[in-house]
Structures are given as structure tokens and as C-alpha cells.
Design a protein that fits this description.
The chain has about 150 residues and is α/β, with parallel strands linked by helices. Helix content is about 35%, strand content about 20%.
Length: about 150
């Protein structure tokens, strides 16, 4: 059974309260509960981690080596400038998919650049909470092909 780690970055603990017109009205806990069910349907397990701290995210990525088969990451604002998270993803060599709730390319110009996407298998953006499910399906498919 494949083990998947879902990493959520800064401010994603505020989902449901934070700009629901952009990010939706579901809490992170509700999204995670839905993903637990979807993981079961897909025959994999999923672990959840959220932090507002860059170093904690990097530590979690490092600690995942040998423990998980695939990663889904929503780096939040770190997407646009965290070379350190980018380097951590590159270093661990675990298939990683970047996900964003909003379509970052329809938003402010500074959100159009992802420093983390180039070291990920792919990126899913703009589908709200469905993006997490799509990323889960995608990482399971990627792992089948390894």
C-alpha cells in the first residue's frame, strides 16, 4: 500500500475562514477527512501535515525519506520564493505534486511564478478542494508507473 504525505503550508490552517471566495468555505480538517476516504478508495494511506513555518516544512520533507512513497504539497505563499523548500523537494527524490486551490495564474503577477513546481512531477491549480483529490489520484498513478 502506497503511503502519501500531504503537506500544507502557511495560512492553510485558516481555510474556511480565509477569503472563502478564493479558497472555498471548507476547513482544512473537512478537506482532510474527504481525502482520507478517497485514499481508502484508491488503496493508499495518507498522512497530513500543516505548518506556517518554512523550516518545519523542510524538516517534514527530509523526514519523509524512506517513510512515504509520494508527496502532495501546497506550499502556499512559499511557492513563489522558497528556494529552501524547492531544494528540499529536489533532494528527497520522492514524486511530488504541487497543488493550489486557486488559479494562481489569474491572480496577482507575483503568484504566477512557482520556484517549487520545476522540481515536482506536476502542478494542479484552480480547482479548489478538488485539486487535492486530483493530486492524490495523480500521485497514485505516477507511483504505479515507477
Amino acid at each position: 500500500m502506497n503511503k502519501i504525505l500531504l503537506v500544507n503550508g502557511p495560512n492553510l490552517n485558516m481555510l474556511g475562514m480565509r477569503e472563502p471566495g478564493i479558497y472555498g468555505s471548507d476547513s482544512l480538517e473537512k478537506i482532510n477527512a474527504q481525502l482520507l476516504k478517497k485514499a481508502d478508495e484508491l488503496g493508499c494511506s495518507i498522512e497530513f501535515f500543516q505548518s506556517n513555518c518554512e523550516g518545519e516544512i523542510i524538516d517534514k520533507l527530509h523526514d519523509s525519506v524512506g517513510c512515504v512513497d509520494g508527496i502532495i504539497i501546497n506550499p502556499g505563499a512559499y511557492t513563489h520564493y522558497s528556494i529552501a523548500i524547492r531544494d528540499a523537494i529536489a533532494a528527497i527524490k520522492i514524486p511530488t505534486i504541487e497543488v493550489h486551490l486557486s488559479n494562481v495564474y489569474k491572480r496577482e503577477q507575483f503568484r504566477h511564478t512557482s520556484v517549487t513546481a520545476p522540481v515536482c512531477v506536476g502542478q494542479i491549480a484552480g480547482f479548489g478542494k478538488l485539486g487535492y483529490e486530483l493530486a492524490l489520484r495523480a500521485v497514485v498513478e505516477v507511483l504505479k508507473g515507477e
